[in-house]
Amino acid sequence: MPQLGVGIVGAGIMGRAHASVLAEHPATRVVAVTSRTRDSAEKLAVEYDASVHPDVAALVADADVDIVVVATPDHLHAETVCAAAEAGKHVLVEKPFTTDPGDAERAVAAVRQAGVKAMTLFNHRWVPAYAQAQARIAAGDIGRPRVAYARKNDTRYVPTRMIPWADRTTCAWFLSSHDIDLVCWMFDDQVETVYASAVDGVLRGLGVDTPDAIQAQCRFRGGGVATFESCWTYPDTFPTMTDSFVEVIGERGVIHLDRKCEQIEIATEDAYQYPRNLLLRTVHGVPAGAVRDAIWHLVDCVRHDREPLVTLESSRHVTAVLAAIHRSIASGRPEAV
């Protein structure tokens, strides 16, 4: 089978990560790049001898492109997914799928109408401990899951320096999207109602117009409940950029998943750190980790005509839950999903 051509939309942190992973897959090659700034697109394209296109329309019209990677800021995903699908291209889109339920409906419809493969990169499903937990829950080892708590809190570095578009999203869209996908997968259920609150002040004082932290209480259709916490104001002295923890309580057992420290601690004269390595790492010069495994999964689904593990319908539900969370913050009342 000839190699599949990949077009990258967005040449930032995740666009570059996607490109490095796909360049290592024996069945894919990066052939095209477009980004909001031509300079960033050219810098990425030159690494892979890829073409640079002025916009998304030109990239999806490129006959050499078979798969489109959408690695743009959160609020810009939907239009690119629709354009790619309508052009007959397979799609891998960064999380969250979209930031508007109506956009999610349009994107799902475009993909299903075109008959292409598409997946949101909820890469946490490929973290070994999370996958093991889901398998144990599905096997009935802890009984029916009834309660969950999921925390994903970042240092201030993320909204103030890592992503320049933090004021166009929130910590919940950026962080809790992963956890909502995970808990829905582990519960094998969907959220019915939410009640959420936000606090602000620190980030707005630093010139970033977005909440500091959000907590959401969610009730599932089957009667279970879950709390999702996200925060963007940990001090940069915290030993890891992301404090991540998931607890699932079943009728006959409990599972704890603590990713604050990923098996390594390093102390130098300058800092004490927990380096991250489960999602994306380089081992002996080759990309590895959950991000790599999830991306390769989509490629293999395209090659072998299989349906991805993460369905667009499940990703659409995550968008609907997050939209309800933000409506609840605004209204001060519980909101239906």
From TrEMBL:
Domain of life: Bacteria
Ranges where the GFO/IDH/MocA-like oxidoreductase domain occurs: 130-255
Pfam families to which the protein is assigned, alphabetical: GFO_IDH_MocA, GFO_IDH_MocA_C3
SUPFAM superfamilies: Glyceraldehyde-3-phosphate dehydrogenase-like, C-terminal domain, NAD(P)-binding Rossmann-fold domains
MF-aspect GO terms: nucleotide binding
Stretches assigned to the Gfo/Idh/MocA-like oxidoreductase N-terminal domain: 5-119
Annotated protein name in UniProt: Predicted dehydrogenase
Organism: Micromonospora rhizosphaerae
